[in-house]
Structure formats: C-alpha cells, structure tokens
UniProtKB/TrEMBL annotation:
GO biological process annotation, one example: enterobactin biosynthetic process
Every 4'-phosphopantetheinyl transferase N-terminal domain range: 54-112
Residues that hold CoA according to the record: R59, R67, S101, H102, D121, E165, K169
Pathway: Siderophore biosynthesis; enterobactin biosynthesis
Residues in 4'-phosphopantetheinyl transferase domain copies: 117-213
Cofactor(s) named in the record: Mg(2+)
Any one GO CC term of the record: enterobactin synthetase complex
Function: Involved in the biosynthesis of the siderophore enterobactin (enterochelin), which is a macrocyclic trimeric lactone of N-(2,3-dihydroxybenzoyl)-serine. The serine trilactone serves as a scaffolding for the three catechol functionalities that provide hexadentate coordination for the tightly ligated iron(2+) atoms.
A Pfam entry, by short name: ACPS
Subunit record text: EntB, EntD, EntE, and EntF form a multienzyme complex called enterobactin synthase.
The name this protein goes by in its record: Enterobactin synthase component D
Length: 221
C-alpha cells in the first residue's frame, strides 16, 4: 500500500465552539492507496475507496488526510470512527454531526454530538485574478456593502465563499437541492463572525483569517 506523508497532527480548535472537536494535519500529495498513522490517540489505518484509485494524486491524498482527521475527531467523541459516503458527501455515525475540509497541504475535520448542523470550510486566500473570476457568482450587492473598509475584494470573496460553503454543509441534511452561492447574503461582518441570511433565516458563521487561509465554522446548536 502506497501511503501519504502526514505531519503536524493537532487537536487545537481553530475556532473554539462548545462541544465541537477539531482535528487537523498537514499532508504531502502522493499516488496513495491508503494511510497508516500512529499517534498519541492510537493507530488509524485507512484504505482508499475503489472509485478513487484512478483519481489524481491530490484528490487521493486530500481524501485520506481528511478522513484521518475525521476518524481522530470521532475517536475523541467516543463515536464509531467510520465515515460513510453518499456520492462525495460524508455520512457520519448516528448522533454525530461532522464536516471535513482541505486547502493546499492542510486538512481538517470537526465533529460534535447534539448539533443540528455543523459545517467547516478552509480556503487558501484568493488571488485578485481568482476573485475576479468567481466573484460574480459568489458576491451579492449586500456582501459588497458589508465589506470592512480595510478589506480588498479578494479577501471579501474568500470569506464569502468559505462562509457560504460552511453554512451549506451545515444545512445539507435538511436541503433537497444544491443552493447557489448568491442565495445567501452577508448582512454583517464582525471581528470574528459574520451573519448570513439564507432563505429567510439568519445564521452566525465564525471565521478565522491569517495571511494564507480563511477557516469558517457554521455550528447550529
């Protein structure tokens, strides 16, 4: 079995939220067919699903790294560690909500019991060219009106994309369709969270920005 290289496995909450367990790691893309990791929480062994064996190296590696983080988060909750699949969507153990994301060489997962919904997203900071390309499909007039005065459009587009993705992940168990990014609009951006309005409901989505990444968390208690 060709395995990927895993490093910097951590349990520090990137965005603290009551009852939410975080796990994150760094990985190096490889033509992997599986993963074996032995850390302080014990060993985890994963095998790539047959339908992904022909995927590109990055897709294989990010899948395995994300599932490693998910298994470790579930283990910390005392829940079954297997995450099923429905198409590309993860299927979490009964009684647990969870979410997985990855960007660049970073993979992360969150899990919680008793949540109505949970969604996490991680994005590398958009370049001005990428923001110009995807912005028309992501940003609404309300989003632009809510932009802090010291932010450029690329940062706003990164946050809007990530926050809407996190919200849609959190709501996915109760949605019968795949929403358009322009359906949700930003009502307000505060220092550590923003308010999204989607189909008549307001939801606070927490965020964390650094020089390279934007991480967002939609936690529906």
């Amino acid at each position: 079995m060709t395995a990927i290289s895993i490093a910097d496995v951590g349990d520090r909450p990137l965005i603290p939220a009551p009852g939410v367990v975080w796990r994150a790691c760094r990985f190096r893309a490889a033509p992997a067919t599986g993963l074996v990791h032995d850390g302080p929480q014990g060993a985890v062994s994963l095998t790539l699903p047959p339908d992904l064996l022909r995927a590109v190296d990055r897709r294989r590696s990010e899948f395995l790294a994300g599932r490693l983080c998910a298994a470790l988060a579930l283990r910390a909750l005392g829940a079954p560690e297997a995450v099923g699949r429905d198409g590309r969507a993860p299927v979490w153990p009964e009684g647990v909500r969870g979410s997985i994301s990855h960007a660049g060489d970073l993979a992360l997962a969150v899990a919680a019991r008793g949540a109505a919904g949970l969604g996490v997203d991680c994005e590398a900071r958009f370049s001005p060219d990428l923001a110009a390309e995807v912005g028309p499909g992501v940003l609404t007039a309300a989003d632009r009106a809510a932009r802090p005065p010291d932010w450029d459009e690329a940062w706003l587009c990164t946050l809007a994309f990530s926050a809407k993705e996190a919200l849609y992940k959190a709501l996915s168990p109760r949605l019968d369709d795949v929403p358009d990014f322009a359906e949700a609009r930003i009502e307000r951006i505060d220092a550590a969270a923003l308010t999204l309005v989607f189909r008549g409901a307001r939801t606070r989505v927490a965020y964390r920005l650094d020089a390279a990444h934007c991480v967002t968390l939609a936690h529906l208690p």
